[in-house]
Design a protein that fits this description.
The structure is a homodimer of 241-residue chains.
Chain A (H helix, E strand, L loop, with lengths): L2 H12 L2 H8 L9 H22 L6 H8 L3 H4 L6 H23 L6 H18 L1 H10 L5 H27 L8 H17 L1 H6 L4 H16 L2 H7 L8
Helix pairs in contact in A: 1-7, 2-3, 3-4, 3-8, 6-7, 6-9, 7-8, 7-9, 7-10, 7-12, 9-10, 10-12
Chain A binds a DNA duplex (18 and 18 nucleotides) through helix 5.
Chain lengths: 241, 241
DNA sequence: GTCTATACACAGATAGAC
DNA sequence: GTCTATCTGTGTATAGAC
């Protein structure tokens, strides 16, 4: 799968996000018209991502946010009760979106090698499509309350466990080598993270997200794959699609 | 090399750091006695690292710092002119320390494979020994002024170029495979970074820094090493020490 | 729903006694 | 060198007109 295909499928879901934000917080905000709320939540979120990328959430003042959105302070507070709640809304919303996408693209009945490739690619592609959110979550997690931090950690563990399970199944089937699968999973996650934390670097070097994902796959497979078994299953050079 | 050996060598240099901080900033601070300054700079730096790890530098107030160090606000301002200058001092000092250590442990005349192993290990070991500083630099880099950010980036490029050079030399000698060495270097850096960004995770799982460094090496070598050439050079199983 | 004006708290920083 | 007390700016948040 290439990034463009992924993006197309994703976009068909994407428009729902801000409607969800409105509906989930309907009781706590003063805005009643869905159309207005959706339009402005999008504007607010985008501005938060921009400013936070430049100087961090703590350093962002409500006046920064006001001037970037062209909304007054008073208006902003009609959409959320406090700066801290805004942080919490962004986190919650992003988290639920991520989970949905993963569930949609993951098929536990595929053979392990295919699952491994798919999980790695989907994670990198998703972090490309929603880079502001991934970056934001990583950098601002420490500003969350206890509950929020727990949610971030549980997500981290969830994706790691997914990888471990795939690697173990593959090992049992003789496709993957015997390794410390938990450590392998952590290192794969580190490579995925690299993409959204340092994207400016790859942009400068004209490395596309497809290039990067393929390289991560190659790196990972050279370590995990049982070469004998693979030769047996794929006698021609169809490996790597 | 094991972490313990590395740490012993490092400690013999380490005691100098706070004396350097004093001497380099002697003109800008009101404290005149070296002994007092050194003792308190150490206390201040440690407190900053602790608090920043919990909530970030922006969110740290001078009053937080005051109560954590048991020094009054007035006293603190005898050691630096402003909160921003404190940030700058910490960054500058750490940067110069890192460069010294790298220079001390890197021998460009060693064979490429040995250099690769050494650079990877030294980086991980150093980030273990000075984890608060590495973590601080990564998370707080965006709060620096233009000059400071440029320094961080140049350090990042410096270590990456070191790796690229080693991989190229090795390829020419037939020890390493032909790869996109710049991408390989970036991914190695991502694996190194994982250690100091997520150290709590490995502590929980009882993975030591030696375990982790060895795993990174194994991972990297399975991708980079030219298996034929290695067999030729090391007919027995002495590989990996 | 959005605005301006403002309350109130708390941050960084300094003065000056000891 | 260190302290307490205090100044001053700026941040979050709200009240109330439109």
């Amino acid at each position: 799968m290439k990034y463009m295909e992924f993006k197309k499928i994703l976009d068909s879901l994407d428009s729902e996000i801000y409607r969800e934000v409105f509906q989930e917080n309907q009781d706590n905000i003063r805005i009643k018209k869905e159309k207005t709320a959706v339009k402005n939540f999008e504007k607010i979120f985008d501005a938060v991502f921009q400013i936070t990328y430049e100087k961090g959430f703590q350093a962002m003042t409500m006046r920064d946010l006001s001037s970037r959105t062209n909304m007054s302070l008073g208006s902003l507070y009609a959409y959320f009760a406090s700066k801290e709640e805004l942080l919490s809304i962004i986190h919650r919303q992003g988290g639920s979106m991520i989970k949905n996408v993963f569930a949609k693209f993951h098929n536990p009945d595929d053979p392990p090698l295919e699952q491994l490739r798919s999980v790695i690619k989907v994670h990198i592609f998703l972090s490309e499509a929603s880079r502001p959110w991934f970056y934001f979550t990583f950098m601002e997690a420490k500003n969350l309350d206890t509950e929020g931090r727990a949610a971030v950690l549980s997500m981290e563990e969830h994706t790691e466990n997914m990888l471990v399970h795939i690697l173990e199944t593959g090992e049992q089937q003789g496709v993957f080598l015997k390794r410390n699968h938990l450590l392998t999973a952590s290192i794969i996650k580190a490579m995925q993270q690299e993409w959204y934390l340092k994207r400016w670097k790859y942009k400068k070097r004209k490395i596309s997200v497809d290039d990067y994902a393929d390289y991560v796959l190659e790196f990972t497979e050279s370590f995990c794959l049982n070469a004998e078994q693979v030769k047996y299953n794929f006698p021609d050079n169809s490996i790597g699609q």
